[in-house]
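Issue: ligand-bound run for 3NM - logging full I/O for the record.

Environment: standard queue, default settings, no custom constraints.

Inputs:
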Amino acid sequence: MHLEVVGIGDPPLPKGAPQLVLQLLAGTLTPEEAEAIQQAVAEMRRIDWEIWEKTEGELEPVMRESWRGRLKGLYVITDPQLGGGHLTGARAALQGGARIIQLRDKAATTRQLIEYAQALRALTHDYDALLIINDRLDVAMAVGADGVHLGQDDMPVPLARRVAGDALIIGVSAETVEEAIRAEAEGADYLGVGPMFATATKPDAGAPIGPERLRQIKQRVSIPVFGIGGITLENARQVLQAGADGICVISAVLGAPDPAEAAHHFAQML
Ligand code: 3NM
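Outputs:
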């Protein structure tokens, strides 16, 4: 029997596929043939691992740089109560031009979050947009999201980095210049700075800090900064004039009569 390694992982074999092939062929293979197949599979795995080890160190800085360029523009956080729920809301936001979607649901079970996240992963891929998961690093990693967003009471950035490695965007909420500087020093990839204005969407968001604080933060950090909290089509320009790389909204898009149209108006401004 002639055996040939015809390709490595493209399309990737589902885990267990070689065993399945062997089972299917059981009875039709001699022990030597079965052994030869197993050796060929082991060799493929070894080559695959070698390629990964050689390229990992070179790829990660490139990946990080490519995100930098994508961490800007309209960033919409989904809400279970607004815009028809996570999926419908995200689809409208993407149709309108959102470039980043964050799944945020403080009440969902882990299983529900995973289901929303998987559906949003497919949707954001269709629009070539980034998917960020609020707070839940495990969910972000499990569904292959682009990143996780951490609040000041969530997992500390260095620990999240230890778990996730470099191949995940880590965003951090910052209210003060000190929090912003620390987050960057600890390895955050972007900041959400707010609340810019009064917001009813996050009752515990605290008093508005205003675009001026964002301007101060921009002067002290070099990672991208998004303004968040109470941002509307009327006040968004103030946030952009303060130097924001993008704006992050919930209600002004998902609470609008036509979320896709609202997103489109924001996207045109950016
Ligand atoms: N974080 P809306 S404000 C999720 O200041 C969130 O960190 C905030 O909703 C912060 O656009 C906020 O409807 C809610 O005001 C943003």
